[in-house]
Amino acid sequence: MKKFILLLSSIAIFSFSAKSQGYDIKINFKGCKDTMAYLVKYTWDQQYVADTCHKIKNGLIQFKGKKDLDKGVYVLVSQASSIYFDFFINENQKFTITTDAADMVANLKSVGNKENEEFFGYIKYITSKNQDFNKIREQTKGKSKEDSTKFMIQKITELNAEVKKFDSDFMTKVKGTYVFDVLNLKTEKEPTEIPKAKNGRPDSVYQYYYYKSHYFDGVNFKDERIIRTPFFDDRVKKYFDQVILNHPDTVIAEIDKILGKCEQDNLVYNLLLGYFTYKYEQSKIMGFDKVFVHLADKYILSGKASKVYTEETVTKIKERVDIMRNLLLDAKVSEVYMIDTTYGKLVRKMGFDTATSSKSITDLYYKNIEKLTPMFKTLYQVNAKYTVLVFWAADCGHCQTEVPKLHEALKDLKGKMDVKVFAVQTKDDLYDSWRKFLIDHKMNDFINVYDPVHLNNLKERFDIYSTPVIYILDKDKKIKAKRLGSEQVVEMLKTLDAMDKEAAKIKN
């Protein structure tokens, strides 16, 4: 059962209009000591208060309103935020539930609501089997470890067989109902007949592909009620985190497949699109920004998310995507024109360090263009199998630790791999402290450059919102790895080099 979160706010995309007849839900809760209780609805991975009973008298809890409640699974929650039990609110929104605090599950009954009668019967059976399991464990006391294990295996096998049969029979009986739809979300789809592999064991490959291909069997993505269950969010998250291959292209294909099963602009579509967009825009796994860019291009910027994002938000997403799409893995970075430490003082004498406006900088540039042109050191002038592109700032404490660590680590590759470092100082006003840092740490084997002329919009072009930022580029200046820690660079270079050599062998 999920932890109850007391939220009184509402979400715009979760509301919809329908002909209202109102609701009247009575819960006769014998032995209830609460004076107040909450009616809480599941919505994706959160729970929201739908109504509050402010006065409980003799255990009678009543929730009543003139407008229909959203259809779905709800939970009765105590004034101390303890969860009591789940129940269904669907077409019929006027019914009574009775129970007893002495044994809440065993005494659950519903009058006037067949779905809850069916659901409570299911809960009672599963609860009784859990109790049987505890009794079996008690029966092992006094037995030897060997006898205890043998006894447990036998009894649990029998118990599991009983539960599986009951579950199968129950699901057949309620097929076509909302009870089936809800419980189907938690049901694992496993093959009953598994072929043998060449080694004589059950074919695990067959099991995996069967499980994956049947994972969402029976799930109607057009039915908004599935959002308001305790199982749908776990089902989706497990599929993308544990079942499918964790690769951007695979994730993109699977998201498209699922959104293709939804109706555009309905609750399921809107919520899933919002969830996937946020998940992969925030992902710390290298390369998964490709998923975010795909979602933005195909759904958000194309106008297929008007019920999810405002025009202002779409504009911000576009700005973000326009930066990110040029920095995806295997994208070729654009050229940068920099000045190295050798010419730093000469450029400063031209007045760039004291210029205060874009116009004055531009005027200085064109005034000195003939002198500046031969001074430029560009990224594409770097001739190496791999280029480590580093953006850092001399006044950044983290940089002051990480850049020397990177410098030291790369010594391990000297003479073994063709690697050069193009180290960019991001703050041109720190020229003196930057130059001193380079001398103190003997970093003369890096290509140390900065941009006093302000030709390159580095922060946006390379998505620099904190430093250091490290990219690894191949000989064609395509991004092979990015946003690495200094301790990861050498291992990544070794991995890339090994992959290149293996690909060369296959090609030859």
Write the layout of secondary structure elements.
Layout: E1 23-30, E2 37-43, E3 46-53, E4 60-65, E5 72-78, E6 83-89, E7 94-100, E8 109-111, H1 114-139, H2 145-174, H3 178-184, H4 204-213, H5 232-243, H6 248-260, H7 267-281, H8 289-300, H9 311-324, E9 337-340, H10 344-349, H11 358-367, H12 369-372, E10 377-378, E11 386-392, H13 397-409, E12 419-425, H14 431-440, E13 447-450, H15 458-461, E14 469-473, E15 479-482, H16 486-507
Parallel strand pairs: 1-7, 11-12, 12-13
Antiparallel strand pairs: 1-4, 2-3, 2-5, 5-6, 7-8, 9-10, 9-13, 11-14, 14-15
Helix pairs in contact: 1-2, 6-8, 7-8, 8-9, 13-16
Write up what this structure looks like.
With 508 residues, the chain is α+β, with helices and mostly antiparallel strands. It folds into four domains: 12-112, Immunoglobulin-like; 127-172; 204-327; 337-507, Glutaredoxin (3-Layer(aba) Sandwich), CATH 3.40.30.10. It is built from 16 helices and 15 strands. It has helices at 114-139, 145-174, 178-184, 204-213, 232-243, 248-260, 267-281, 289-300, 311-324, 344-349, 358-367, 369-372, 397-409, 431-440, 458-461, 486-507, and strands at residues 23-30, 37-43, 46-53, 60-65, 72-78, 83-89, 94-100, 109-111, 337-340, 377-378, 386-392, 419-425, 447-450, 469-473, 479-482. Strands 10-9-13-12-11-14-15 form a seven-stranded mixed β-sheet, with helices on one face. Helix 13 links the parallel strand 11 and strand 12 (419-425). The longest helix is centred in the N-terminal third of the chain and has 30 residues, at 145-174. The protein is elongated, with a radius of gyration of 32 Å. Residues 1-18 have low confidence and may be disordered.
